[in-house]
Design goal:
6% of the residues lie in helices and 58% in strands. It is mostly beta strands and 624 residues long.
Length: 624
């Protein structure tokens, strides 16, 4: 295994040395991009953390139909899927568990007190996403509770051009082809409508996918919808936004949680959220933003779908959140301060009825010195009826060292309180642990990045120490799973990548290669099994190529190579997309064909759950 790490490191250093030799005198001048947050105003190239961005252009070019699969193209991110087309999946970052990642939609928390399994029940159709930001490392200082290993912020598409009115419809059909020669069929449809005036704009997106799934008892029906209204008053320099979304999933859950005994399980999960925000810009020199949001989740799990009376769970959770943020320019930087409140409750036939409350405040000060050095420091203070008073400090910096090259680094902290499932869930194959303690992490990172327009690259080393780490473990397959404060875990890794974008003979080409290699300090006895942390991605390599073959016709290829800690075999998956887009009578149209897992590779991201085989997708999109 050490040899694999050495090969990755040598390859990475060689790639960076090659990039460093390119002539950058004709570099493209780009406007700086910022991390989307009401709490800070940080340029991505100044951040002391590794930040990955998935743009709208990339989302449209990739051969995927769900957010989870799109996120699987980011090094350091581990999306473990239980079924096809985003029906149920868990996200983790740099070895953390799915509970240790904070998922946001336009800054609105999607974390659920019942279980982190519900975080990826994202009520946002894929065509509603403008971009996805992944900030890696403990981020309690800026994002508060549950940002233990990183943050995924999904930014929705917004259009303020009063002359832009649009209706788009898209149809998709999908077939999966296992090696036993059987075929399973799924279908989907998406619709988008938007329009407005120079003062108000509204948009709505809808998505449906359903069918037979990818294997026995993974049939599903999934509905996603989102509605946004944005109003802007130029005289008062203020804006009002309303955002609401809903996802309704019903799916066969064969082997999802208690393999092999849950072959006939079925689950229904409904999630809704509503957010109201008001922002006063005050001539754009400072900003005051107020958010009020609610999130509701209903989960009904039946152990044997043919006979629900044998065993079933019904959980209903509700979260209310209030937040006020003030951002003030000061010297050559900004000062951000704010308060937030969060109230969580659950009613459950298995977990019982519980409530808990959190109150937090933060301060963040950033400064730039001669466009050469950037530093940001601050902390987040939290008080709750389950943790008492806690404080999470942090600092990050970046500095220009030569030309377009910068060094960057950070130190961050974070905490996660146990979910109600961790504390109280008892089932046919699980046992609760009401004595669990909260997790606490300390992360450090140091790296170098270069952005010269056509070429960009980055390389970093990181170390994350988690105290009282919670994981579901068992000694052997004859025992039941139980959550425990497993022990203190240290993850150390190296992450890097290169990107290239240019034109050859008038045809556009985009290429990137990213990798992540990490190890932990745990020494386990033979026979121990883990549902999450001990089965982390030890080696990860991802290549992306998007090539314009001729005008309007493009080819996209994505290659992923994976090696997990509890699986000594390295497997690779190749996905391909062919697409054509054009216009007729001033109406845009496109059609595409996707082929996922074209090698029909057999692999598992979660113990005992085979991932989808070869999948073929055909889609047509028309804008009116």
């Amino acid at each position: 295994m050490k040899n694999k790490h050495c090969i990755f490191l040598i390859t990475a250093l060689y790639s960076f040395s090659v990039i460093a030799q390119f002539d950058t005198t004709e570099a493209i001048s780009l406007e700086p991009a910022f991390i989307t947050s009401p709490r800070t105003h940080t340029r991505i190239d100044e951040s002391g953390n590794t930040v990955s961005i998935i743009s709208r252009k990339q989302i449209e070019s990739l051969p995927y139909q769900d957010v989870a699969s799109v996120l699987n193209t980011i090094a350091g991110v581990d999306l473990r899927q239980r079924s096809a087309i985003g029906v149920q999946s868990d996200a983790s970052i740099r070895g953390g568990s799915f509970d240790q990642v904070l998922v946001l939609i336009d800054g609105i928390r999607m974390s659920d007190p019942q279980t982190g399994h519900h975080q990826m029940n994202i009520p946002v159709p894929l065509n509603s996403i403008e971009r996805i930001e992944i900030i890696k490392g403990p981020m309690g200082r800026r994002y508060g509770l549950n940002a233990l290993s990183g943050v995924i912020n999904i930014i929705t598409r917004k259009q303020y051009n009063s002359s832009y009115k649009n209706f788009t419809v898209e149809g998709i059909t999908n077939t999966f082809h296992p090696k036993d020669s059987s075929t399973r069929i799924n279908n989907g449809i998406r619709a988008n409508i938007q329009g407005g005036s120079d003062k108000i704009h509204a948009w709505a997106n809808f998505e449906y996918f359903g069918g037979e799934g990818s294997r026995y008892n993974t049939d599903f029906n999934s509905y996603r919808s989102i509605l946004g209204v944005n109003a802007f008053n130029k005289q008062t320099d203020a804006s009002l936004s309303i955002l609401g979304g809903s996802v309704n999933n019903k799916f066969g859950a064969s082997y999802f949680y208690a393999a092999p005994n849950d072959k006939e399980a079925i689950e229904t999960v409904n999630t809704q959220f509503l957010n109201l925000s008001y922002e006063f810009l005050k001539s754009r020199k400072s900003s005051l933003k107020v958010n009020f949001s609610n999130r509701w989740n209903f989960d009904h799990y039946v152990y044997i779908r043919q006979n629900p009376a044998i065993y079933q769970n019904k959980h209903s959770s509700k979260i209310q959140m209030q937040e006020i943020n003030y951002l003030l320019p000061i010297f050559n930087g900004e000062l951000g301060i704010g308060l937030e409140g969060r109230q969580e409750s659950i009613e459950s036939n298995n977990l019982g009825n519980h409530k808990r409350n959190f109150l937090g405040s933060y301060i963040d000060l950033s400064q730039r010195f001669w466009d050469i050095f950037y530093i940001s420091l601050g902390g987040y203070a939290m008080n709750s009826d389950v943790t008492g008073f806690k404080f999470y400090p942090g600092v990050d910096f970046s500095a220009k060292v030569y030309g377009n090259w910068k060094i960057y680094g950070s130190m961050g902290t974070g905490q996660r309180v146990p979910t109600y499932t961790d504390l109280y869930y008892n089932g046919p194959n699980n046992l609760s642990n009401p004595l669990l303690l909260s997790e606490y992490s300390l992360g450090k990172e140091f790296g170098v990045r270069n952005n010269s327009g056509k070429f960009s690259s980055h390389l970093s080393i990181y170390n994350t120490q988690t105290q009282n780490s919670i994981d579901w473990v068992r000694k052997d397959s004859g025992q039941i799973w139980m959550p425990q404060n497993y022990q203190n875990i240290i993850f150390t890794g190296i992450e890097g990548g290169i990107k290239f974008s240019d034109e050859f003979y008038g045809r556009k080409i985009d290429f990137s290669w990213d990798f992540n290699s990490m190890e932990n300090s745990i020494v386990t006895e033979d026979g121990w099994e883990s549902k999450a942390i001990l089965n982390f991605l030890q080696l990860q390599s991802i290549a992306y190529l998007n090539l314009e073959i001729f005008e309007g016709f493009s080819l996209n290829t994505t290659w992923r190579a994976i090696n997990r800690k509890q699986n000594s075999n390295t497997y690779s998956v190749i996905d391909v997309k062919l697409s054509y887009q054009n216009s007729f009578a001033e109406r845009d149209y496109s059609f595409y064909m996707n082929a996922t897992n074209i090698g029909n590779t057999q692999f598992e991201e979660i113990n005992s759950i085979p991932l989808p085989p070869l999948g073929l997708y055909f889609g047509v999109k028309l804008s009116i």
